[in-house]
């Protein structure tokens, strides 16, 4: 049942001009806990360009994960884009951000990550716990996920860490934001730009308001109250939205802004730099027996710095289901498929799987590997000055050889799991792994060229079939664009608090840490405001 969010309003009902203590641009995975925390003792305006997740069964129901990501409608909660690398991707466009459209896996960052970033360990743990009381659950592990876990242990991804939110080497069951009933726990298209003013006696510009449009194209203005220098605008629009909005507001590489006719407020060459996306590669394994609908619940955290995860029984949109079904039928019809032969018995048993695809539910498992880091990075650039259009994004997958090495090792581990005794009942015995690899090469997983040697070379397979797991980050990184307090360098009253500030993905899935960061920074900002207020009284 949807919470009573009566304070969520369509922008069309907003006054033309409003004043608040804090204006948060982006009601996403970081913006929501940040707003909830700052609302204690202050007025908050959250501007979210998407709608509410409540009442949309594609968002709230675990079985509809696939169709949500494939929704291409203008109001889709998952806005699609394709990187310049030829990899399909999405950016969230809904209250709750990525937590409203992702696979729901909940796991914390490692203690090493927390130490390297420089966060306060105790406040980090308190912030995680605050989040977990509301959105995190222990999943029920059914047959397919159990087979994946046992397969990982069998092939040496040890030890068995059972259920835990903590980041530990070995195999574990993590948390989920789906409850026991399979329901996910997590307002007009708002287009906004930041406004800056120069105050007499100040050498630096100061953020003081935003302009946004509602669904009817009517312009609205929201300003910070003038009674305190502690009032702030906070960008929490994600790794695509935050650097894009900074540039549109005149904060970014001067040459690039001028090329688009944007007045330069601050020449910030590193805005949009350091964009990274953790490469994902998968095997689709048709199952001779029914599988449960499960998203990521088990993860193998390897010592060669790759994560092994899986999902089963996914549903697809009609269009993709038919494309996948047709490709698979063509693949199965090639009974003499060099250098291996798919036996007729395997074809007959797989026919039911094809029927399942055509009816939108895959009777199969998907085992994936995602590399840690990554080391390879790219950049983001404006396409135009329309904030609703996707910018150009380049991630440079596998530019660094070390990333490719991790992928190869990860794929070898997946192959070992598929061949393990623990996983054996969920695969066709007469369909060799080479056939599964070749099947992946027939599927429209990206827009990259497929090479003939990808069947035999895991290196080429990684390059040719790379996909996203939607954990991209960077563009407003700490020390380059913001300081350790997430304040934009060179500008007063403006912060960026979201995944765009990360150099690497925190753990197997970043959402727990992004939510934690919203709470963590909200607490720090409130503390600083309280200290500032006490000093003024004294």
From TrEMBL:
Family the entry assigns = Belongs to the GMC oxidoreductase family.
Q: Which SUPFAM superfamilies match?
A: FAD-linked reductases, C-terminal domain, FAD/NAD(P)-binding domain
UniProt cross-references to Pfam families, sorted A to Z: GMC_oxred_C, GMC_oxred_N
Q: What is this protein called?
A: Protein HOTHEAD-like
Q: GO terms for molecular function, please?
A: flavin adenine dinucleotide binding; oxidoreductase activity, acting on CH-OH group of donors
- What keyword terms does UniProt attach to this protein? Disulfide bond, FAD, Flavoprotein, Signal
Q: Which cysteines are joined by disulfide bonds?
A: 407-462
Entry's InterPro entries?
Answer: FAD/NAD-bd_sf (IPR036188), GMC_Oxidoreductase-Related (IPR051871), GMC_OxRdtase (IPR012132), GMC_OxRdtase_N (IPR000172), GMC_OxRtase_C (IPR007867)
Q: Which organism is it from?
A: Prunus yedoensis var. nudiflora
Say yes or no: keyword Chaperone present.
no
Q: Which residues bind FAD?
A: 48-49, 94, 470-471, 499, 510-511
Which cofactors, by name?
FAD
Q: Does the keyword Repeat apply?
A: no
Q: Which PROSITE patterns match?
A: GMC_OXRED_2
The record's annotation in PANTHER family points to: GLUCOSE-METHANOL-CHOLINE (GMC) OXIDOREDUCTASE FAMILY PROTEIN, OSJNBA0019K04.7 PROTEIN
Q: Where is the Glucose-methanol-choline oxidoreductase N-terminal domain?
A: 238-252
């Amino acid at each position: 049942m949807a919470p009573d969010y009566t304070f969520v309003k369509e922008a069309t009902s907003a006054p033309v001009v409003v004043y608040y203590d804090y204006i948060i641009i982006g009601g996403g995975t970081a913006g929501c806990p940040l707003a909830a925390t700052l609302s204690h003792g202050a007025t908050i305006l959250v501007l979210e360009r998407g709608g509410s997740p409540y009442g949309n069964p594609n968002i709230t129901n675990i079985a509809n994960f696939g169709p949500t990501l494939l929704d291409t409608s203008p109001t889709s909660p998952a806005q699609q884009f394709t990187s310049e690398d030829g990899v399909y991707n999405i950016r969230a466009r809904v209250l709750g951000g990525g937590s409203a459209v992702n696979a729901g896996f909940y796991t914390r960052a490692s203690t090493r990550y927390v130490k390297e970033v420089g966060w306060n360990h105790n406040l980090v743990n308190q912030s995680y716990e605050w989040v977990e009381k509301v959105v995190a659950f222990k999943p029920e592990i059914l047959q397919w996920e159990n087979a994946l876990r046992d397969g990982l242990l069998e092939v040496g991804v040890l030890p068995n860490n059972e259920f835990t939110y903590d980041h530990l080497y070995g195999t574990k069951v993590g948390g989920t934001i789906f409850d026991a009933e399979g329901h996910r726990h997590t307002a007009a298209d708002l287009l906004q730009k930041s406004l800056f003013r120069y105050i007499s006696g100040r050498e630096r510009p100061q953020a003081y308001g935003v302009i946004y449009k509602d669904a009817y194209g009517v312009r609205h203005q929201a300003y910070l109250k003038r009674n305190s220098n502690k009032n702030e605008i906070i960008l929490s629009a994600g790794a695509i939205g935050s650097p894009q909005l900074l540039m549109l507001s005149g904060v970014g590489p001067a040459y690039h802004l001028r090329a688009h006719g944007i007045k330069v407020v601050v020449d910030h060459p590193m805005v949009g730099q350091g964009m990274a996306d953790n490469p994902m590669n998968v095997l689709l394994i048709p199952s001779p027996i029914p599988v449960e609908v499960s998203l990521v619940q088990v993860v193998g955290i390897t010592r060669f710095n790759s994560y092994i995860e899986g999902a089963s029984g996914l549903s697809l949109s009609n269009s993709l289901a038919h494309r996948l079904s047709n490709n698979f039928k063509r693949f199965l019809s090639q009974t003499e498929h060099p250098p291996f032969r798919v036996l007729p018995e395997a074809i007959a048993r797989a026919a039911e799987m094809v029927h399942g695809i055509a009816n939108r539910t895959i009777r199969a498992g998907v085992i994936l590997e995602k590399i840690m880091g990554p080391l390879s990075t790219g950049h983001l650039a404006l396409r135009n000055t329309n904030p609703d259009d996707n910018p150009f994004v380049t991630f440079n997958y596998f530019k660094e050889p070390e990333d490719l090495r991790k992928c190869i090792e990860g794929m070898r581990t997946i192959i070992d799991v598929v061949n393990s005794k623990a996983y054996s009942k969920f695969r066709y015995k007469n369909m060799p792994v080479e056939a599964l690899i070749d099947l992946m090469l027939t599927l429209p997983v990206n827009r990259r060229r497929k090479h003939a040697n990808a069947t035999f070379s895991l290196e080429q397979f990684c390059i040719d079939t790379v996909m996203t797991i939607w954990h991209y980050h960077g563009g407003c990184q700490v020390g380059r664009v913001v300081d350790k307090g997430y304040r934009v360098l060179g500008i007063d009253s403006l912060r960026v608090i979201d995944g765009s500030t990360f150099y690497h993905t925190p753990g197997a899935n970043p959402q727990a840490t992004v939510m934690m960061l919203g709470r963590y920074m909200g607490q720090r900002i409130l503390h600083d405001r309280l200290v500032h207020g006490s000093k003024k009284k004294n």
